[in-house]
Amino acid sequence: MDLSSIPQLKYTSGDNFFLLSGPCAIEGEDMAMRIAETIVGITDRLHIPYVFKGSFKKANRSRVDSFTGIGDEKALKILRKVSETFKVPTVTDIHEVEDAKRAAQYVDVLQIPAFLVRQTDLVVAAAKTGKTVNLKKGQFMSPESMSHAVRKVTDSGNEQVWITDRGTMFGYQDMIVDFRGIPVMKQYAPVVLDVTHSLQQPNQSSGVTGGKPELIDTIARAGIAAGVDGIFLETHFDPANAKSDGANMLPLSQLEKLLTRLTALRKTVNQF
After folding, report:
1. DAHP synthetase I/KDSA domain: which residues (predicted)?
2. For a Cys-Cys bond, which of 89, 144, 212, 254 suits 199, CB 3.0-4.6 Å?
3. Domain boundaries in the chain?
Protein backbone atom coordinates (compact mmCIF):
# COMPACT_ATOMS: atom_id res chain seq x y z
CA MET A 1 0.00 0.00 0.00
CA ASP A 2 1.52 3.30 -1.11
CA LEU A 3 0.39 6.11 1.16
CA SER A 4 3.40 8.23 0.33
CA SER A 5 1.80 9.46 -2.89
CA ILE A 6 -0.80 11.43 -0.94
CA PRO A 7 0.43 15.00 -0.40
CA GLN A 8 1.25 16.00 3.17
CA LEU A 9 0.37 12.62 4.67
CA LYS A 10 2.72 12.10 7.63
CA TYR A 11 4.04 8.99 9.41
CA THR A 12 3.66 6.76 6.35
CA SER A 13 6.86 4.91 7.13
CA GLY A 14 5.40 3.43 10.31
CA ASP A 15 3.09 0.43 10.63
CA ASN A 16 0.11 2.14 12.25
CA PHE A 17 -3.34 2.28 10.67
CA PHE A 18 -4.26 5.45 8.81
CA LEU A 19 -7.22 7.60 9.79
CA LEU A 20 -9.92 9.42 7.85
CA SER A 21 -11.80 11.57 10.34
CA GLY A 22 -13.69 14.81 10.76
CA PRO A 23 -17.27 16.05 10.76
CA CYS A 24 -19.92 14.54 8.54
CA ALA A 25 -20.46 17.84 6.73
CA ILE A 26 -18.68 21.17 6.59
CA GLU A 27 -21.01 23.44 8.59
CA GLY A 28 -18.67 26.43 8.61
CA GLU A 29 -15.03 27.45 8.80
CA ASP A 30 -14.73 27.78 12.57
CA MET A 31 -16.10 24.31 13.31
CA ALA A 32 -13.94 22.66 10.64
CA MET A 33 -10.77 24.35 11.88
CA ARG A 34 -11.55 23.54 15.51
CA ILE A 35 -12.11 19.84 14.78
CA ALA A 36 -9.08 19.61 12.49
CA GLU A 37 -6.76 21.24 15.03
CA THR A 38 -7.82 18.78 17.72
CA ILE A 39 -7.43 15.68 15.54
CA VAL A 40 -4.09 16.80 14.12
CA GLY A 41 -2.76 17.22 17.65
CA ILE A 42 -3.91 13.72 18.63
CA THR A 43 -2.63 11.99 15.50
CA ASP A 44 0.72 13.75 15.76
CA ARG A 45 1.14 12.46 19.30
CA LEU A 46 0.22 8.91 18.24
CA HIS A 47 2.01 8.98 14.85
CA ILE A 48 -1.16 8.13 12.91
CA PRO A 49 -1.23 9.05 9.20
CA TYR A 50 -4.23 11.40 9.07
CA VAL A 51 -6.60 12.63 6.38
CA PHE A 52 -9.19 15.28 7.35
CA LYS A 53 -12.70 14.30 6.24
CA GLY A 54 -15.59 16.64 5.53
CA SER A 55 -18.42 16.51 3.00
CA PHE A 56 -18.69 19.68 0.94
CA LYS A 57 -22.33 18.80 0.27
CA LYS A 58 -24.74 16.07 1.32
CA ALA A 59 -26.86 14.57 -1.44
CA ASN A 60 -28.10 11.33 0.15
CA ARG A 61 -30.72 12.73 2.50
CA SER A 62 -33.88 11.15 3.89
CA ARG A 63 -35.99 14.33 3.68
CA VAL A 64 -36.06 17.24 1.30
CA ASP A 65 -35.60 19.68 4.20
CA SER A 66 -32.45 17.96 5.51
CA PHE A 67 -29.22 19.95 5.68
CA THR A 68 -27.26 19.61 2.43
CA GLY A 69 -24.46 22.13 2.85
CA ILE A 70 -23.34 25.76 3.12
CA GLY A 71 -22.58 26.13 -0.59
CA ASP A 72 -20.27 23.98 -2.67
CA GLU A 73 -17.50 26.49 -3.39
CA LYS A 74 -17.54 27.85 0.15
CA ALA A 75 -17.18 24.38 1.69
CA LEU A 76 -14.45 23.32 -0.74
CA LYS A 77 -12.45 26.44 0.08
CA ILE A 78 -12.73 25.58 3.78
CA LEU A 79 -11.34 22.10 3.04
CA ARG A 80 -8.42 23.72 1.22
CA LYS A 81 -7.82 26.06 4.16
CA VAL A 82 -7.77 23.12 6.59
CA SER A 83 -5.16 21.43 4.41
CA GLU A 84 -2.99 24.53 4.06
CA THR A 85 -3.25 25.50 7.73
CA PHE A 86 -2.55 22.11 9.32
CA LYS A 87 -0.50 20.54 6.51
CA VAL A 88 -2.76 17.50 6.18
CA PRO A 89 -4.50 15.94 3.17
CA THR A 90 -8.29 16.08 2.88
CA VAL A 91 -11.07 13.82 1.59
CA THR A 92 -14.59 14.65 0.49
CA ASP A 93 -17.36 12.67 -1.20
CA ILE A 94 -18.69 13.40 -4.66
CA HIS A 95 -22.10 12.62 -6.10
CA GLU A 96 -22.06 13.70 -9.74
CA VAL A 97 -19.57 13.37 -12.58
CA GLU A 98 -19.10 17.14 -12.62
CA ASP A 99 -18.11 17.06 -8.94
CA ALA A 100 -14.98 15.03 -9.62
CA LYS A 101 -12.96 17.60 -11.52
CA ARG A 102 -14.19 20.46 -9.34
CA ALA A 103 -13.50 18.79 -5.98
CA ALA A 104 -10.13 17.51 -7.20
CA GLN A 105 -8.93 21.10 -7.33
CA TYR A 106 -9.35 21.37 -3.55
CA VAL A 107 -8.87 17.91 -1.95
CA ASP A 108 -6.48 14.97 -2.13
CA VAL A 109 -8.86 12.00 -1.93
CA LEU A 110 -12.21 11.64 -3.69
CA GLN A 111 -14.75 9.41 -1.98
CA ILE A 112 -17.53 7.57 -3.79
CA PRO A 113 -20.60 7.16 -1.54
CA ALA A 114 -21.88 3.64 -0.92
CA PHE A 115 -25.17 4.19 -2.75
CA LEU A 116 -23.25 5.35 -5.84
CA VAL A 117 -20.32 2.94 -6.03
CA ARG A 118 -21.85 1.04 -8.95
CA GLN A 119 -22.16 4.25 -11.01
CA THR A 120 -19.48 3.64 -13.61
CA ASP A 121 -19.34 7.20 -14.99
CA LEU A 122 -18.84 8.63 -11.50
CA VAL A 123 -16.14 6.14 -10.50
CA VAL A 124 -14.25 6.62 -13.78
CA ALA A 125 -14.48 10.42 -13.52
CA ALA A 126 -12.95 10.27 -10.04
CA ALA A 127 -10.21 7.92 -11.21
CA LYS A 128 -9.27 10.11 -14.15
CA THR A 129 -8.51 13.07 -11.88
CA GLY A 130 -5.45 11.16 -10.68
CA LYS A 131 -6.49 11.57 -7.05
CA THR A 132 -6.72 8.64 -4.65
CA VAL A 133 -10.24 7.18 -4.88
CA ASN A 134 -11.98 5.85 -1.76
CA LEU A 135 -14.78 3.47 -2.74
CA LYS A 136 -17.45 2.95 -0.10
CA LYS A 137 -18.82 -0.59 -0.28
CA GLY A 138 -22.53 -0.51 -1.03
CA GLN A 139 -24.71 -1.64 1.87
CA PHE A 140 -26.30 -3.99 -0.67
CA MET A 141 -23.07 -5.42 -2.12
CA SER A 142 -20.97 -8.45 -1.32
CA PRO A 143 -17.25 -8.03 -0.56
CA GLU A 144 -16.43 -9.96 -3.74
CA SER A 145 -18.40 -7.55 -5.92
CA MET A 146 -16.12 -4.68 -4.91
CA SER A 147 -13.43 -6.16 -7.15
CA HIS A 148 -15.35 -4.75 -10.12
CA ALA A 149 -15.48 -1.25 -8.63
CA VAL A 150 -11.74 -1.36 -7.97
CA ARG A 151 -11.10 -2.51 -11.53
CA LYS A 152 -13.00 0.49 -12.90
CA VAL A 153 -10.47 2.72 -11.17
CA THR A 154 -7.37 0.77 -12.17
CA ASP A 155 -8.58 0.28 -15.75
CA SER A 156 -8.82 4.08 -15.91
CA GLY A 157 -5.09 4.29 -15.25
CA ASN A 158 -5.23 5.02 -11.51
CA GLU A 159 -3.70 2.55 -9.04
CA GLN A 160 -4.48 4.69 -5.97
CA VAL A 161 -7.72 3.15 -4.71
CA TRP A 162 -9.09 2.08 -1.34
CA ILE A 163 -12.22 0.19 -0.29
CA THR A 164 -14.18 1.33 2.74
CA ASP A 165 -16.63 -1.05 4.41
CA ARG A 166 -19.54 0.75 6.04
CA GLY A 167 -21.64 -2.24 6.98
CA THR A 168 -24.31 -4.25 5.22
CA MET A 169 -28.04 -3.60 5.46
CA PHE A 170 -29.65 -5.99 7.92
CA GLY A 171 -33.39 -5.67 7.68
CA TYR A 172 -34.70 -2.16 7.09
CA GLN A 173 -33.22 -0.20 10.00
CA ASP A 174 -29.88 -1.67 10.96
CA MET A 175 -26.35 -2.23 9.66
CA ILE A 176 -24.06 -5.18 10.36
CA VAL A 177 -20.30 -5.38 9.78
CA ASP A 178 -19.35 -8.78 8.37
CA PHE A 179 -15.67 -9.04 9.27
CA ARG A 180 -15.28 -12.02 6.92
CA GLY A 181 -15.27 -9.46 4.12
CA ILE A 182 -12.12 -7.66 5.30
CA PRO A 183 -9.59 -10.27 4.09
CA VAL A 184 -11.62 -10.78 0.91
CA MET A 185 -11.52 -7.10 -0.03
CA LYS A 186 -7.85 -6.77 0.95
CA GLN A 187 -7.11 -8.94 -2.07
CA TYR A 188 -8.31 -6.04 -4.26
CA ALA A 189 -7.16 -2.88 -2.43
CA PRO A 190 -6.32 -1.49 1.02
CA VAL A 191 -9.40 -1.70 3.25
CA VAL A 192 -10.76 0.97 5.56
CA LEU A 193 -13.49 0.36 8.14
CA ASP A 194 -16.06 3.13 8.44
CA VAL A 195 -16.88 2.70 12.10
CA THR A 196 -19.52 5.37 12.58
CA HIS A 197 -21.62 4.77 9.46
CA SER A 198 -21.59 1.05 10.25
CA LEU A 199 -23.53 1.97 13.39
CA GLN A 200 -26.21 3.95 11.63
CA GLN A 201 -29.86 3.05 11.95
CA PRO A 202 -31.35 4.42 8.72
CA ASN A 203 -34.97 4.65 7.57
CA GLN A 204 -36.37 5.90 10.87
CA SER A 205 -39.99 7.00 10.78
CA SER A 206 -38.90 10.56 11.64
CA GLY A 207 -36.78 10.74 8.49
CA VAL A 208 -33.69 11.40 10.65
CA THR A 209 -31.10 8.61 10.73
CA GLY A 210 -30.43 7.06 14.12
CA GLY A 211 -27.33 5.33 15.40
CA LYS A 212 -25.51 3.42 18.16
CA PRO A 213 -22.41 5.48 19.00
CA GLU A 214 -21.90 3.54 22.22
CA LEU A 215 -20.58 0.68 20.04
CA ILE A 216 -17.92 2.75 18.23
CA ASP A 217 -15.15 1.41 20.46
CA THR A 218 -16.28 -2.19 19.95
CA ILE A 219 -16.48 -2.00 16.15
CA ALA A 220 -13.22 -0.06 15.84
CA ARG A 221 -11.27 -2.54 17.97
CA ALA A 222 -12.73 -5.46 16.04
CA GLY A 223 -11.69 -3.80 12.78
CA ILE A 224 -8.08 -3.38 13.93
CA ALA A 225 -8.02 -6.99 15.13
CA ALA A 226 -9.37 -8.13 11.74
CA GLY A 227 -6.49 -6.36 9.98
CA VAL A 228 -8.00 -3.26 8.38
CA ASP A 229 -5.52 -0.81 6.93
CA GLY A 230 -7.44 2.31 7.91
CA ILE A 231 -10.18 3.59 10.17
CA PHE A 232 -12.86 6.07 9.10
CA LEU A 233 -14.92 7.78 11.75
CA GLU A 234 -16.89 10.98 12.01
CA THR A 235 -16.54 13.19 15.05
CA HIS A 236 -17.91 16.50 16.29
CA PHE A 237 -17.49 18.56 19.45
CA ASP A 238 -21.30 18.70 19.78
CA PRO A 239 -22.88 15.69 18.00
CA ALA A 240 -26.33 16.43 19.38
CA ASN A 241 -26.39 19.69 17.43
CA ALA A 242 -24.46 18.55 14.34
CA LYS A 243 -26.35 19.28 11.15
CA SER A 244 -25.78 15.82 9.66
CA ASP A 245 -25.40 12.30 11.13
CA GLY A 246 -25.07 13.48 14.70
CA ALA A 247 -26.75 10.33 16.03
CA ASN A 248 -23.80 8.09 15.17
CA MET A 249 -20.82 10.45 15.56
CA LEU A 250 -18.14 10.18 18.22
CA PRO A 251 -17.85 13.15 20.59
CA LEU A 252 -14.53 14.83 19.84
CA SER A 253 -13.62 14.73 23.54
CA GLN A 254 -13.54 10.91 23.38
CA LEU A 255 -11.35 10.60 20.30
CA GLU A 256 -7.89 10.58 21.89
CA LYS A 257 -8.78 7.80 24.31
CA LEU A 258 -10.15 5.67 21.47
CA LEU A 259 -7.19 6.24 19.13
CA THR A 260 -4.72 5.51 21.93
CA ARG A 261 -6.37 2.12 22.52
CA LEU A 262 -6.48 1.36 18.79
CA THR A 263 -2.79 2.24 18.37
CA ALA A 264 -1.85 -0.10 21.22
CA LEU A 265 -4.01 -2.85 19.74
CA ARG A 266 -2.46 -2.35 16.31
CA LYS A 267 1.02 -2.88 17.79
CA THR A 268 -0.15 -6.18 19.26
CA VAL A 269 -1.79 -7.29 16.01
CA ASN A 270 1.38 -6.44 14.06
CA GLN A 271 3.28 -9.01 16.12
CA PHE A 272 1.25 -11.75 14.49
Report:
1. 13-268
2. 212
3. 18-270
